[in-house]
Design a protein that fits this description.
Blueprint (H helix, E strand, L loop, with lengths): L9 E4 L5 H5 L7 E5 L9 H10 L3 E5 L13 H14 L3 E5 L2 E4 L2 E7 L5 H18 L3 E4 L14 H12 L2 E5 H10 L4 H7 L5 E7 L2 E4 L5 E4 L8 H14 L4 E4 L7 H23 L1
Helix pairs in contact: 4-5, 8-9
């Protein structure tokens, strides 16, 4: 099984509207990331642009529709398209979400949470094994941003992720914004969550912005909206993570209200500066 091997640098999610600016000159980035489902067609402009980028940069493919947490079997047609995509581009990393998004013939445009029980643990582990056996590469699993919890859950999320690593050999994608969003929504301490997180298995980190609203009871509710710069509390948590892990490939996610290229690049430069500082501390 091929391990995930992104360089320990900053990257960004590739948006086609940025292609001309990116291609005009070498960019100070370690990698680009794309959503798998946007490239499951046979050809056309999306593949032409991605093929050009792949010549010069490391690549991460990030799935949003595999529904790894569903109780039903994985969609074989989707798996076949995913394998074709990974075979075509040989990405340094493939990742998915600890979530589900399909039921029967219904496909939902959301990443939905699942209860953390022995039954769901076994099912998710089975699905991860299926994916890794097919792709012949390690899959990274991302911690979710959640807005509710399940009374039937009997396993802490961090323990659930650690056990999936032990059972399957998968790696982890730590989304620091998701940690902050979920902790705020559930009145938990994000630092306590990170203290329990199996950081030794993290192969990629995600950073993004979130929006704030209130729920029906008037309490603060954070939404993982990917439509703003990274917020200061998330940067602070990220620095604390790097203190423990050292430099790890770190992605700026900005999927909605996408800004001009210089704005996105400035966010990546901020992450790169923190990665460089982490590397210097490790070398001292």
């Amino acid at each position: 099984m091929k391990p995930s091997s992104l360089p320990p640098r900053a990257g960004v999610g590739f948006k086609p509207e940025h292609f001309t600016a990116i291609d005009a000159a070498p960019q100070p980035l370690g990698f680009f990331e794309v959503h798998a489902e946007n490239y499951m067609g046979a050809g056309g402009p999306p593949h032409a642009k991605l093929s050009r980028l792949r010549q010069d940069y490391a690549l991460s493919i990030h799935g949003v529709g595999l529904s790894i947490g569903a109780m039903q079997p994985l969609d074989r047609d989707h798996l076949a398209r995913l394998k074709s995509l990974c075979d075509r581009y040989e990405p340094e990393s493939f990742s998915e979400h600890l979530a589900w998004s399909s039921h029967g013939e219904v496909f939902l445009n959301d990443l939905l949470p699942l209860p953390y029980t022995a039954a769901t643990l076994a099912r998710v582990a089975e699905h991860i094994d299926t994916v890794q056996d097919l792709l012949k590469r390690q899959m990274l699993l991302e911690n979710p941003a959640t807005y509710l919890t399940f009374t039937e859950s009997t396993i802490e999320e961090t323990d659930f992720l650690a056990e999936l690593v032990r059972l399957t050999g998968c790696g982890l994608l730590l989304d620091v914004n998701n940690v902050f969003v979920a902790a705020t929504n559930h009145n938990l301490d994000p630092r306590a969550y990170l203290a329990r997180f199996p950081l030794a298995h993290v192969r990629e980190i995600h950073l993004s912005g979130h929006s704030e609203t209130v729920d029906d009871a008037g309490a603060t509710l954070l939404i993982d909206s990917h439509d703003t710069p990274v917020k200061d509390p998330v940067w602070a948590l990220y620095e604390e993570v790097l203190e423990r892990t050292g430099p790890v490939a770190s992605l700026i996610e900005w999927d909605n209200d996408v800004p001009d290229w210089p704005v996105l690049l400035s966010e990546a430069r901020a992450a790169e500066a923190l990665l460089d500082a982490s590397a210097r501390r490790r070398a001292a």
